[in-house]
Structures are given as C-alpha cells and as structure tokens.
Amino acid sequence: MFGKTLLSVTRRRFGTLALGSLLSVALPFSASAELGEPEKDELTFGFIKLTDMAPLAIAYENGYFEDEGLYVSLEAQANWKVLLDGVIDGQLDGAHMLAGQPLAATIGFGTRAHIVTPFSMDLNGNGITVSNAVWAEMKKHIPHENGKPVHPIKADYLKPVVDQYINEGKPFNMGMVFPVSTHNYELRYWLAAGGIHPGYYAPHKGDISGQINAEALLSVTPPPQMPATLEAGTIHGYCVGEPWNQQAVFKGIGVPVITDYEIWKNNPEKVFGLNKEFTEKYPNTTVRVVKALLRAARWLDENDNANRPQAVEILSRSEYVGADYDVIANSMTGTFEYEKGDKRDIPDFNVFFRYFATYPYYSDAIWYLTQMRRWGQIAEPKSDDWYLEVAKSVYRPDIYQAAAEALIDEGEMETEEFPAFAEESGFRPPQTEFIDGMVFDGSQPNAYLEQFPIGLKGSEVVE
C-alpha cells in the first residue's frame, strides 16, 4: 500500500546557465575601501526559536550591533514561511534562515525572490528522534557494547520497523521543519542510506507533498511543536534542531537516535539571509551586520566553549528560545543525551566559528542544490555550471570578506581566524565523512548524485 508506487522517468536535456536577470551576480563588495556609516541604522531581524539563532542574540546582548551604529530589534517568527515572507516584503531586514531558503527562493521553488547570504550561522546542531515504541523495536537490531547502543545508529535498524508498518498497511509518518530545511535533507539522507525511500517532489506536476514513492512519509511540523506531535502519536519520529530533541528526552516521550554531526560531520546548517535589494541599497549596513555576527560567533566558540553557559542562560529567556536552561545546556555545552541516562560528549554538536563555520562556501550551497535535485524539488536535470552559477548568485563571500577585513584592520580579529581570501576558491576539499561513505565534491554535483542508489540523477524526471 505504502512505498509501492513505481518511479517513471524520462530523459531530459541538462539545463543551461540562462537564469535570467534574477541570478545576475553583483559586483564584489570592496574589501579594501574604508567602511562608511550605516545607511540604515534601525533594523528588525527575524528568527525561529532554536539554539542556533545564538549569534543574533549574542550580537544583540553583547552590544556588537550597537558598536556598528546599528539599533536592532529581534523578533521571533511563527514559522519559516512567515519568516521568509517577512524578509521578502521588507517587514524584516534580515533573518536567521534555513540554508536552503535563499537558494530555493532564488530558483523559484516556493516563493520566488532573490535572497542572498553573506554569513553562515553554524555547523551541525540537529538530531533525529523516534518515539519510545519505535525505539523499542529498533533496539532489537542495534549492536550493543557495555549495555549501550553502538553509535552512529543507522537507518538500517529502522528499516524492519518501517517494513512492518508497510506490511500492515499503516503509514510511517515522520516530521521535519520545512521542505527546504537541512532537517528535511538530513532525514532523507539518513533514511535513504538505510534503504528507506523518503519520497519525491514533483512541482512540475503540482505535487509538492514530497511523498511520491515514499516508504516513510515526511511532513512539516514547526520545531517547538515536535515533541507534542510525537507524544500525540501523529508522527513516529522527527528531525529538528535543539532544544527539541533533548526536550523529548526530558519529557520521556522519545529517544534521539542520531545527530547530524554523525550523518555528515560538520555540515552547514543555518544562514543569515537578506533580500538582495537590501544589500545593494544599504551596503555599509550589510557589512556592519556581518561584522557584528562574526564577533558573536567567535564569542560563542572561544576558549573551548567557555562562554556557552552564559549563552545558554541568554537563550533560555522567553524572548529567545524560551526552553529550560538544563534542556538547552544538554547539547549547547558539548554533550548530547540519547536514551535517558546515555549522555555522550559531542563537543562539536554546535559549532559557530571553528572550522571557518561562518564562511559562505559555494560548495555548501551546491550540496543543498544537489539534495533539491535528488528529491525532485529541482524537477529537471541541470548542468554542473548551473549549480555553480546559482551558488554564486546567493552565497556572497565578497560581503563576508569586506566585514572580516574591516575587523582585522580594527585589530578586533586576526587574519588567521579567516580563510586565506587571496587563495580561497569557495570550495571545501572533497568531503568524506558521511554516514554512507559517499564523497561530496562540490565541483562535480552531477557525478555526486550518480553515486546514490535512491534518488533522482542524470536525466531522470518524475512522471
């Protein structure tokens, strides 16, 4: 009944570079010119109540925005769509965004608008949680050492559970936060690596459910509602950022089985998104915003996370994340609790500055685009050059460099804290630390997609 629909494919020609004026790449910001005063000094930024909005909170609380002559209001948003719409229509000057949102908007999946990002907000920070009942069945298949499950826990151990649901004619439902969220792609990646088909999108046919051919049915649930939806039995598991995995542990309603750090080590997560028009109208303001965020990101990671307890106190306030201190601290301070009582050290569960986390790499953008193509959100095949052109139109290392070099000139930060700009290509070296052993080379997106047994590749199109 479920997961039995056959995928029909046809051959289509690869897309060209022609994306129209929407994707015209702006001239680089000057990194050498003296930075002028902000053209707009009163700003409103949006965020979702997740711990990875921390750079915004810290830039505000530590006075980094004011140091740049900026007077910022931070406003929590109801969901990711409301947040994106706010940036598009100008109610918000910028926002904490899912990394896929600027890319999807720019290529026209969902609401079309040219959104750019000059700043990556963090690495890692998500987890996948299943209900107690599902965990009880999974545990039967998981190897144990010293009475504890061996990690990382692959979706291979979930597959017998999903198969049983299918055989009984019951849907196996899972939650993620948004169709173009990292959580959606990470959950799909983990499931597919374990032989569980997470389904296709077919926007060219008007089907944006993402459930074509699915064995596990994924749907959207706002992050703060994940634990309650799991407890109600509406979903059997979910992928979400913190503190909503640890909340399930504290409430005793579910078990986080894997972190995204274990799915793809040091994966990019959120970005700071702005309307392209804003960056063109207010270039000095844009660079000054990035300067403040860079200082906040460094503060969050400096001295081996020594400032994290203070950050947790700030985030626990109702105007920010609004979860209990202990729930946020469970992951934010370098640990992560899986099954109740099984707390393990993961010092890089949240990374805000280390490993050049803040730099907007083109290869990061291309990975997200490959996942949109893999699952049908990009319905037609595209050339490798197309992926690069889209990445360059959205990710803006020129703005980042201008902010970084201003901080270096001021003596606020050191050259060594940033990539070597004169040599930087915008591509990370090929990345190997994925749970399924696949290698991602951002310069060859189509070759990357060819590796996967589950997912669209080459000229395949969902019919």
TrEMBL record:
The keyword Lipid biosynthesis belongs to this UniProt entry's keyword annotation: no
Q: Which UniProt keywords apply?
A: Cell inner membrane, Cell membrane, Membrane, Signal, Transport
An example Pfam family from this entry, by short name, is: NMT1_2
| Annotated Gene Ontology cellular component terms | endomembrane system
Disulfide bond recorded as keyword: no
Query: Any signal peptide, and if so, which residues?
Result: 1-33
Subcellular location per the Swiss-Prot or TrEMBL entry: Endomembrane system
List, alphabetically, the PANTHER family matched.
ALIPHATIC SULFONATES-BINDING PROTEIN-RELATED, BLL4572 PROTEIN
Q: What is this protein called?
A: Nitrate ABC transporter substrate-binding protein
Record organism:
Seongchinamella unica
